[in-house]
Amino acid sequence: MSCRGDSDEDSSRKRRVSYVYSPEYIETCDTLSKVPNRASMVHSLIEAYGLLKHMSVVKPEAATIEEMAKFHTDSYLEHLHKISQDGDNDDPQSVDYGLGYDCPVVEGIFDYAAAVGGATLTAAQSLLDQKSEVAINWAGGWHHAKKDEASGFCYVNDAVLGILRLREKYERVLYVDVDLHHGDGVEDAFSFTSKVMTVSLHKFSPGFFPGTGDLCDTGLGKGRWYAVNVPLEDGIKDDRYYQVFTSVMQEVRAQFNPEAMVMQLGADTMAGDPMCSFNMTPVGVGKCLQYVLQWQLPTLLLGGGGYNLANTARCWTYLTAAVLGKTLSSEIPDHEFFTEYGPDYSLEISPSCRPDRNDAKHLDQVISTIKGVCVVCVMHRCLCVNRCVSSC
Protein backbone atom coordinates (compact mmCIF):
# COMPACT_ATOMS: atom_id res chain seq x y z
CA MET A 1 0.00 0.00 0.00
CA SER A 2 1.68 3.17 -1.15
CA CYS A 3 1.88 6.09 1.24
CA ARG A 4 3.61 8.44 -1.15
CA GLY A 5 1.88 11.67 -2.00
CA ASP A 6 2.44 14.21 -4.73
CA SER A 7 5.69 15.57 -3.30
CA ASP A 8 9.10 14.23 -4.22
CA GLU A 9 9.83 10.95 -2.45
CA ASP A 10 13.45 11.80 -1.61
CA SER A 11 12.50 15.10 0.05
CA SER A 12 9.83 13.28 2.08
CA ARG A 13 12.39 10.76 3.32
CA LYS A 14 14.73 13.52 4.44
CA ARG A 15 12.02 15.27 6.43
CA ARG A 16 12.91 15.46 10.13
CA VAL A 17 9.98 14.22 12.17
CA SER A 18 9.43 14.25 15.95
CA TYR A 19 6.98 11.77 17.46
CA VAL A 20 5.77 12.44 20.99
CA TYR A 21 5.65 9.23 23.00
CA SER A 22 6.25 7.60 26.33
CA PRO A 23 4.63 4.48 27.84
CA GLU A 24 3.24 6.61 30.66
CA TYR A 25 1.69 9.09 28.24
CA ILE A 26 -0.02 6.35 26.22
CA GLU A 27 -1.29 4.69 29.40
CA THR A 28 -2.78 7.99 30.56
CA CYS A 29 -4.48 8.64 27.20
CA ASP A 30 -5.93 5.13 27.17
CA THR A 31 -8.10 6.10 30.13
CA LEU A 32 -10.27 8.50 28.10
CA SER A 33 -13.68 6.82 28.35
CA LYS A 34 -14.87 7.79 24.86
CA VAL A 35 -11.90 6.12 23.12
CA PRO A 36 -10.54 3.52 25.58
CA ASN A 37 -7.15 2.05 24.61
CA ARG A 38 -7.13 3.97 21.33
CA ALA A 39 -3.76 5.55 22.05
CA SER A 40 -2.21 2.11 22.56
CA MET A 41 -3.75 0.77 19.35
CA VAL A 42 -2.40 3.68 17.31
CA HIS A 43 1.09 3.52 18.78
CA SER A 44 1.29 -0.27 18.56
CA LEU A 45 0.45 -0.28 14.85
CA ILE A 46 2.96 2.49 14.11
CA GLU A 47 5.57 0.51 16.02
CA ALA A 48 4.62 -2.78 14.32
CA TYR A 49 5.27 -1.24 10.91
CA GLY A 50 8.75 -0.19 12.04
CA LEU A 51 8.15 3.54 11.68
CA LEU A 52 9.62 4.61 15.02
CA LYS A 53 13.20 4.17 13.80
CA HIS A 54 12.60 6.83 11.15
CA MET A 55 11.48 9.47 13.67
CA SER A 56 12.91 11.21 16.69
CA VAL A 57 10.90 9.89 19.64
CA VAL A 58 10.39 12.68 22.17
CA LYS A 59 9.19 12.11 25.72
CA PRO A 60 6.39 14.53 26.59
CA GLU A 61 6.23 16.61 29.74
CA ALA A 62 2.92 17.30 31.45
CA ALA A 63 1.67 20.85 31.13
CA THR A 64 1.75 22.98 34.25
CA ILE A 65 -1.29 24.92 35.41
CA GLU A 66 0.52 28.08 34.33
CA GLU A 67 1.01 26.70 30.82
CA MET A 68 -2.64 25.65 30.49
CA ALA A 69 -3.68 29.05 31.86
CA LYS A 70 -2.21 30.64 28.74
CA PHE A 71 -5.67 29.84 27.35
CA HIS A 72 -7.93 28.31 30.00
CA THR A 73 -9.26 30.32 32.94
CA ASP A 74 -7.90 29.79 36.44
CA SER A 75 -11.38 29.00 37.75
CA TYR A 76 -11.92 26.21 35.20
CA LEU A 77 -8.52 24.64 35.82
CA GLU A 78 -8.93 24.87 39.59
CA HIS A 79 -12.34 23.20 39.41
CA LEU A 80 -11.07 20.46 37.10
CA HIS A 81 -8.19 19.81 39.48
CA LYS A 82 -10.49 19.71 42.52
CA ILE A 83 -13.02 17.23 41.15
CA SER A 84 -10.32 15.13 39.49
CA GLN A 85 -8.80 14.13 42.79
CA ASP A 86 -11.72 11.89 43.78
CA GLY A 87 -13.75 11.64 40.57
CA ASP A 88 -16.58 13.72 42.01
CA ASN A 89 -19.31 13.76 39.34
CA ASP A 90 -21.91 15.33 41.63
CA ASP A 91 -20.38 18.74 42.18
CA PRO A 92 -23.16 21.22 41.28
CA GLN A 93 -20.63 23.63 39.75
CA SER A 94 -19.45 21.10 37.18
CA VAL A 95 -22.32 21.76 34.82
CA ASP A 96 -21.21 25.39 34.56
CA TYR A 97 -17.87 24.14 33.26
CA GLY A 98 -19.31 21.74 30.68
CA LEU A 99 -18.50 18.68 32.77
CA GLY A 100 -21.04 15.89 32.69
CA TYR A 101 -22.48 13.77 29.89
CA ASP A 102 -20.03 14.40 27.02
CA CYS A 103 -17.17 15.15 29.38
CA PRO A 104 -17.65 12.88 32.39
CA VAL A 105 -15.67 13.45 35.54
CA VAL A 106 -13.42 10.55 36.44
CA GLU A 107 -10.57 10.29 38.89
CA GLY A 108 -7.37 11.61 37.35
CA ILE A 109 -9.02 13.59 34.55
CA PHE A 110 -6.89 16.65 35.37
CA ASP A 111 -3.73 14.58 34.96
CA TYR A 112 -5.05 13.42 31.57
CA ALA A 113 -5.68 17.02 30.48
CA ALA A 114 -2.22 18.09 31.63
CA ALA A 115 -0.64 15.13 29.81
CA VAL A 116 -2.35 15.89 26.50
CA GLY A 117 -1.72 19.62 26.72
CA GLY A 118 1.89 19.03 27.65
CA ALA A 119 2.45 16.56 24.80
CA THR A 120 1.28 19.09 22.24
CA LEU A 121 3.45 21.77 23.84
CA THR A 122 6.39 19.37 23.70
CA ALA A 123 5.74 18.77 20.00
CA ALA A 124 5.44 22.50 19.32
CA GLN A 125 8.66 23.18 21.19
CA SER A 126 10.54 20.68 19.01
CA LEU A 127 9.54 22.83 16.04
CA LEU A 128 10.60 26.04 17.76
CA ASP A 129 13.95 24.48 18.62
CA GLN A 130 14.33 23.36 14.99
CA LYS A 131 14.79 19.76 16.10
CA SER A 132 12.18 18.72 13.55
CA GLU A 133 10.18 20.04 10.61
CA VAL A 134 7.08 18.01 11.47
CA ALA A 135 6.00 17.08 15.00
CA ILE A 136 3.27 14.52 15.74
CA ASN A 137 0.96 14.03 18.73
CA TRP A 138 -1.78 11.66 17.62
CA ALA A 139 -3.31 11.59 21.11
CA GLY A 140 -3.91 15.35 20.91
CA GLY A 141 -6.21 17.45 18.76
CA TRP A 142 -9.03 18.09 21.25
CA HIS A 143 -10.43 21.11 19.47
CA HIS A 144 -13.80 21.73 21.20
CA ALA A 145 -12.68 22.84 24.67
CA LYS A 146 -13.30 26.52 25.46
CA LYS A 147 -11.50 28.89 27.83
CA ASP A 148 -13.72 27.97 30.76
CA GLU A 149 -15.60 24.93 29.54
CA ALA A 150 -15.06 21.32 28.57
CA SER A 151 -16.94 20.28 25.45
CA GLY A 152 -17.31 17.34 23.08
CA PHE A 153 -14.98 14.91 24.92
CA CYS A 154 -12.38 17.72 25.17
CA TYR A 155 -11.14 18.85 28.60
CA VAL A 156 -8.19 20.94 27.41
CA ASN A 157 -7.72 22.59 24.04
CA ASP A 158 -4.21 21.39 23.32
CA ALA A 159 -4.47 22.69 19.74
CA VAL A 160 -4.86 26.24 21.04
CA LEU A 161 -1.97 25.74 23.47
CA GLY A 162 0.21 24.50 20.61
CA ILE A 163 -0.69 27.49 18.43
CA LEU A 164 0.08 29.91 21.24
CA ARG A 165 3.47 28.27 21.75
CA LEU A 166 4.25 28.56 18.02
CA ARG A 167 3.18 32.21 18.11
CA GLU A 168 6.10 32.89 20.44
CA LYS A 169 8.29 32.70 17.33
CA TYR A 170 6.07 32.82 14.25
CA GLU A 171 4.05 35.88 13.29
CA ARG A 172 1.33 34.04 11.35
CA VAL A 173 0.15 30.54 12.24
CA LEU A 174 -2.35 28.61 10.13
CA TYR A 175 -4.70 26.08 11.75
CA VAL A 176 -6.26 23.48 9.43
CA ASP A 177 -8.94 21.13 10.78
CA VAL A 178 -10.20 18.14 8.78
CA ASP A 179 -12.07 16.44 11.63
CA LEU A 180 -15.71 15.53 10.94
CA HIS A 181 -16.76 18.17 13.48
CA HIS A 182 -16.21 21.91 13.31
CA GLY A 183 -13.12 23.08 15.20
CA ASP A 184 -15.18 25.55 17.19
CA GLY A 185 -12.95 25.86 20.24
CA VAL A 186 -9.91 26.83 18.18
CA GLU A 187 -11.87 29.23 15.99
CA ASP A 188 -13.39 30.90 19.06
CA ALA A 189 -9.97 31.28 20.67
CA PHE A 190 -8.61 33.25 17.71
CA SER A 191 -11.77 34.81 16.28
CA PHE A 192 -10.60 38.35 17.07
CA THR A 193 -7.03 38.15 15.75
CA SER A 194 -5.44 38.38 12.33
CA LYS A 195 -2.34 36.50 13.50
CA VAL A 196 -3.97 33.06 13.37
CA MET A 197 -6.11 31.89 10.49
CA THR A 198 -8.39 28.91 11.15
CA VAL A 199 -9.68 26.67 8.37
CA SER A 200 -12.19 23.93 9.10
CA LEU A 201 -13.77 21.40 6.72
CA HIS A 202 -16.59 19.60 8.50
CA LYS A 203 -20.10 18.23 8.44
CA PHE A 204 -22.67 20.97 8.89
CA SER A 205 -26.34 20.11 9.24
CA PRO A 206 -29.19 20.85 11.67
CA GLY A 207 -28.67 19.14 15.01
CA PHE A 208 -25.12 17.96 14.31
CA PHE A 209 -22.57 18.85 16.98
CA PRO A 210 -21.38 21.51 17.63
CA GLY A 211 -23.83 23.34 15.35
CA THR A 212 -21.32 26.01 14.29
CA GLY A 213 -19.07 26.53 11.30
CA ASP A 214 -21.41 27.89 8.65
CA LEU A 215 -19.94 29.41 5.51
CA CYS A 216 -20.75 32.91 6.73
CA ASP A 217 -18.76 32.49 9.97
CA THR A 218 -15.60 34.41 9.07
CA GLY A 219 -14.25 35.85 12.31
CA LEU A 220 -14.86 39.01 14.30
CA GLY A 221 -13.29 42.44 14.71
CA LYS A 222 -9.65 42.41 13.65
CA GLY A 223 -10.10 38.69 12.97
CA ARG A 224 -12.80 39.24 10.36
CA TRP A 225 -12.01 37.14 7.27
CA TYR A 226 -9.44 35.06 9.20
CA ALA A 227 -11.81 32.16 9.88
CA VAL A 228 -12.63 29.95 6.90
CA ASN A 229 -15.37 27.34 7.17
CA VAL A 230 -16.21 24.70 4.58
CA PRO A 231 -19.56 23.07 5.46
CA LEU A 232 -20.08 19.64 3.89
CA GLU A 233 -22.85 17.05 3.69
CA ASP A 234 -22.77 13.30 4.29
CA GLY A 235 -21.09 10.82 1.98
CA ILE A 236 -18.20 12.83 0.56
CA LYS A 237 -15.35 10.68 -0.81
CA ASP A 238 -11.64 11.18 -1.35
CA ASP A 239 -11.55 12.74 -4.81
CA ARG A 240 -14.19 15.40 -4.26
CA TYR A 241 -12.86 16.20 -0.78
CA TYR A 242 -9.34 16.66 -2.14
CA GLN A 243 -10.64 18.95 -4.88
CA VAL A 244 -12.40 21.17 -2.34
CA PHE A 245 -9.44 21.07 0.06
CA THR A 246 -6.84 22.10 -2.49
CA SER A 247 -9.04 24.85 -3.95
CA VAL A 248 -9.52 26.38 -0.50
CA MET A 249 -5.95 25.92 0.70
CA GLN A 250 -4.50 27.46 -2.45
CA GLU A 251 -6.40 30.68 -1.68
CA VAL A 252 -5.58 30.54 2.03
CA ARG A 253 -1.86 30.22 1.41
CA ALA A 254 -1.80 32.99 -1.18
CA GLN A 255 -3.62 35.46 1.05
CA PHE A 256 -2.39 34.59 4.56
CA ASN A 257 1.18 33.47 3.79
CA PRO A 258 1.60 31.39 6.99
CA GLU A 259 4.93 30.87 8.70
CA ALA A 260 3.91 27.75 10.62
CA MET A 261 0.98 25.37 10.61
CA VAL A 262 -1.05 23.18 12.96
CA MET A 263 -3.20 20.47 11.36
CA GLN A 264 -5.87 18.49 13.19
CA LEU A 265 -6.49 15.16 11.45
CA GLY A 266 -9.50 13.65 13.19
CA ALA A 267 -10.23 10.18 11.78
CA ASP A 268 -14.01 10.27 12.28
CA THR A 269 -14.24 11.15 8.57
CA MET A 270 -13.25 7.57 7.72
CA ALA A 271 -15.68 5.15 6.10
CA GLY A 272 -16.90 2.78 8.81
CA ASP A 273 -16.77 5.31 11.64
CA PRO A 274 -19.80 5.08 13.98
CA MET A 275 -20.63 8.68 13.09
CA CYS A 276 -21.73 7.31 9.68
CA SER A 277 -21.20 10.61 7.90
CA PHE A 278 -18.25 11.03 5.53
CA ASN A 279 -16.92 8.24 3.30
CA MET A 280 -13.20 8.94 3.30
CA THR A 281 -10.12 6.72 3.32
CA PRO A 282 -6.58 7.40 4.61
CA VAL A 283 -5.43 7.78 0.99
CA GLY A 284 -7.62 10.85 0.48
CA VAL A 285 -6.64 12.48 3.76
CA GLY A 286 -3.01 11.61 3.02
CA LYS A 287 -3.17 13.50 -0.27
CA CYS A 288 -4.50 16.55 1.59
CA LEU A 289 -1.69 16.27 4.12
CA GLN A 290 0.95 15.96 1.41
CA TYR A 291 -0.48 19.02 -0.33
CA VAL A 292 0.23 21.26 2.65
CA LEU A 293 3.49 19.55 3.64
CA GLN A 294 4.96 20.58 0.30
CA TRP A 295 4.84 24.16 1.60
CA GLN A 296 7.73 23.12 3.87
CA LEU A 297 6.50 25.01 6.92
CA PRO A 298 7.12 23.95 10.52
CA THR A 299 4.07 21.71 10.99
CA LEU A 300 2.40 20.30 14.09
CA LEU A 301 0.14 17.29 13.43
CA LEU A 302 -2.59 16.32 15.91
CA GLY A 303 -5.23 13.62 16.13
CA GLY A 304 -8.79 14.27 17.27
CA GLY A 305 -11.96 12.29 16.66
CA GLY A 306 -12.07 8.70 15.47
CA TYR A 307 -14.47 6.23 17.06
CA ASN A 308 -13.83 3.11 15.01
CA LEU A 309 -10.61 2.45 16.87
CA ALA A 310 -9.07 0.07 14.35
CA ASN A 311 -9.77 2.43 11.46
CA THR A 312 -8.35 5.34 13.42
CA ALA A 313 -5.15 3.39 13.98
CA ARG A 314 -5.09 2.49 10.27
CA CYS A 315 -5.53 6.14 9.29
CA TRP A 316 -2.91 7.68 11.57
CA THR A 317 -0.39 4.94 10.84
CA TYR A 318 -0.86 5.55 7.12
CA LEU A 319 -0.45 9.30 7.63
CA THR A 320 2.70 8.78 9.70
CA ALA A 321 4.16 6.76 6.85
CA ALA A 322 3.10 9.44 4.37
CA VAL A 323 4.97 12.09 6.34
CA LEU A 324 8.05 9.87 6.30
CA GLY A 325 7.74 8.98 2.61
CA LYS A 326 7.44 5.28 3.44
CA THR A 327 5.43 2.58 1.68
CA LEU A 328 3.57 0.16 3.93
CA SER A 329 2.40 -3.37 3.22
CA SER A 330 -1.38 -3.66 3.16
CA GLU A 331 -1.09 -6.71 5.42
CA ILE A 332 -1.27 -5.74 9.10
CA PRO A 333 1.82 -7.02 10.95
CA ASP A 334 1.37 -9.30 13.93
CA HIS A 335 1.27 -7.29 17.15
CA GLU A 336 -0.63 -6.87 20.42
CA PHE A 337 -3.88 -5.66 18.81
CA PHE A 338 -3.71 -7.78 15.65
CA THR A 339 -7.09 -9.45 16.22
CA GLU A 340 -8.83 -6.04 16.19
CA TYR A 341 -8.22 -5.77 12.44
CA GLY A 342 -10.15 -8.85 11.37
CA PRO A 343 -11.58 -10.34 9.32
CA ASP A 344 -9.34 -9.01 6.50
CA TYR A 345 -6.35 -7.81 8.60
CA SER A 346 -5.64 -5.15 6.00
CA LEU A 347 -4.37 -1.59 6.41
CA GLU A 348 -6.75 -0.43 3.70
CA ILE A 349 -10.16 1.13 4.38
CA SER A 350 -12.70 0.76 1.60
CA PRO A 351 -15.42 3.37 1.09
CA SER A 352 -19.00 2.19 1.42
CA CYS A 353 -21.66 2.45 -1.26
CA ARG A 354 -23.54 5.22 0.55
CA PRO A 355 -24.48 8.20 -1.65
CA ASP A 356 -22.55 11.47 -1.70
CA ARG A 357 -25.01 14.18 -0.75
CA ASN A 358 -22.64 16.99 -1.72
CA ASP A 359 -24.02 18.52 -4.87
CA ALA A 360 -21.19 19.56 -7.21
CA LYS A 361 -22.88 22.87 -7.98
CA HIS A 362 -23.22 23.64 -4.28
CA LEU A 363 -19.55 22.85 -3.64
CA ASP A 364 -18.54 25.14 -6.49
CA GLN A 365 -20.57 27.90 -4.87
CA VAL A 366 -18.89 27.25 -1.52
CA ILE A 367 -15.43 27.48 -3.09
CA SER A 368 -16.37 30.61 -5.03
CA THR A 369 -17.70 32.24 -1.87
CA ILE A 370 -14.49 31.45 0.04
CA LYS A 371 -12.39 32.82 -2.80
CA GLY A 372 -14.55 35.94 -2.74
CA VAL A 373 -13.95 36.32 0.99
CA CYS A 374 -10.20 36.05 0.36
CA VAL A 375 -10.46 38.89 -2.15
CA VAL A 376 -12.27 40.98 0.47
CA CYS A 377 -9.55 39.99 2.93
CA VAL A 378 -6.91 41.42 0.63
CA MET A 379 -8.85 44.61 -0.01
CA HIS A 380 -9.69 45.36 3.61
CA ARG A 381 -6.81 43.85 5.56
CA CYS A 382 -3.93 44.54 3.17
CA LEU A 383 -2.82 40.90 3.10
CA CYS A 384 -0.78 39.60 0.23
CA VAL A 385 1.92 37.07 -0.51
CA ASN A 386 4.59 39.73 -0.01
CA ARG A 387 2.94 40.87 3.26
CA CYS A 388 1.56 44.29 4.00
CA VAL A 389 3.88 47.17 3.20
CA SER A 390 1.62 49.94 4.40
CA SER A 391 -0.78 50.41 7.27
CA CYS A 392 -4.55 50.37 6.83
TrEMBL record:
<comment type="function">
    <text>Histone deacetylase that catalyzes the deacetylation of lysine residues on the N-terminal part of the core histones (H2A, H2B, H3 and H4). Histone deacetylation gives a tag for epigenetic repression and plays an important role in transcriptional regulation, cell cycle progression and developmental events. Histone deacetylases act via the formation of large multiprotein complexes. Also involved in the deacetylation of cohesin complex protein SMC3 regulating release of cohesin complexes from chromatin. May play a role in smooth muscle cell contractility.</text>
</comment>
<dbReference type="GO" id="GO:0031507">
    <property type="term" value="P:heterochromatin formation"/>
</dbReference>
<dbReference type="InterPro" id="IPR023696">
    <property type="entry name" value="Ureohydrolase_dom_sf"/>
</dbReference>
<keyword id="KW-0156">Chromatin regulator</keyword>
<dbReference type="GO" id="GO:0005737">
    <property type="term" value="C:cytoplasm"/>
</dbReference>
<dbReference type="InterPro" id="IPR037138">
    <property type="entry name" value="His_deacetylse_dom_sf"/>
</dbReference>
<keyword id="KW-0678">Repressor</keyword>
<feature type="binding site">
    <location>
        <position position="179"/>
    </location>
    <ligand>
        <name>a divalent metal cation</name>
    </ligand>
</feature>
<feature type="binding site">
    <location>
        <position position="307"/>
    </location>
    <ligand>
        <name>substrate</name>
    </ligand>
</feature>
<feature type="binding site">
    <location>
        <position position="268"/>
    </location>
    <ligand>
        <name>a divalent metal cation</name>
    </ligand>
</feature>
<dbReference type="GO" id="GO:0005694">
    <property type="term" value="C:chromosome"/>
</dbReference>
<dbReference type="GO" id="GO:0046872">
    <property type="term" value="F:metal ion binding"/>
</dbReference>
<dbReference type="Pfam" id="PF00850">
    <property type="entry name" value="Hist_deacetyl"/>
</dbReference>
<keyword id="KW-0805">Transcription regulation</keyword>
<protein>
    <recommendedName>
        <fullName>Histone deacetylase 8</fullName>
        <ecNumber>3.5.1.98</ecNumber>
    </recommendedName>
</protein>
<keyword id="KW-0479">Metal-binding</keyword>
<dbReference type="InterPro" id="IPR023801">
    <property type="entry name" value="His_deacetylse_dom"/>
</dbReference>
<keyword id="KW-0804">Transcription</keyword>
<comment type="similarity">
    <text>Belongs to the histone deacetylase family. HD Type 1 subfamily.</text>
</comment>
<feature type="binding site">
    <location>
        <position position="102"/>
    </location>
    <ligand>
        <name>substrate</name>
    </ligand>
</feature>
<dbReference type="GO" id="GO:0160008">
    <property type="term" value="F:protein decrotonylase activity"/>
</dbReference>
<keyword id="KW-0158">Chromosome</keyword>
<keyword id="KW-0378">Hydrolase</keyword>
<dbReference type="InterPro" id="IPR000286">
    <property type="entry name" value="HDACs"/>
</dbReference>
<feature type="binding site">
    <location>
        <position position="181"/>
    </location>
    <ligand>
        <name>a divalent metal cation</name>
    </ligand>
</feature>
<feature type="domain" description="Histone deacetylase">
    <location>
        <begin position="35"/>
        <end position="322"/>
    </location>
</feature>
<feature type="binding site">
    <location>
        <position position="152"/>
    </location>
    <ligand>
        <name>substrate</name>
    </ligand>
</feature>
<feature type="active site" description="Proton acceptor">
    <location>
        <position position="144"/>
    </location>
</feature>
<keyword id="KW-0539">Nucleus</keyword>
<dbReference type="GO" id="GO:0141221">
    <property type="term" value="F:histone deacetylase activity, hydrolytic mechanism"/>
</dbReference>
<keyword id="KW-0963">Cytoplasm</keyword>
<dbReference type="InterPro" id="IPR003084">
    <property type="entry name" value="HDAC_I/II"/>
</dbReference>
<dbReference type="GO" id="GO:0005634">
    <property type="term" value="C:nucleus"/>
</dbReference>
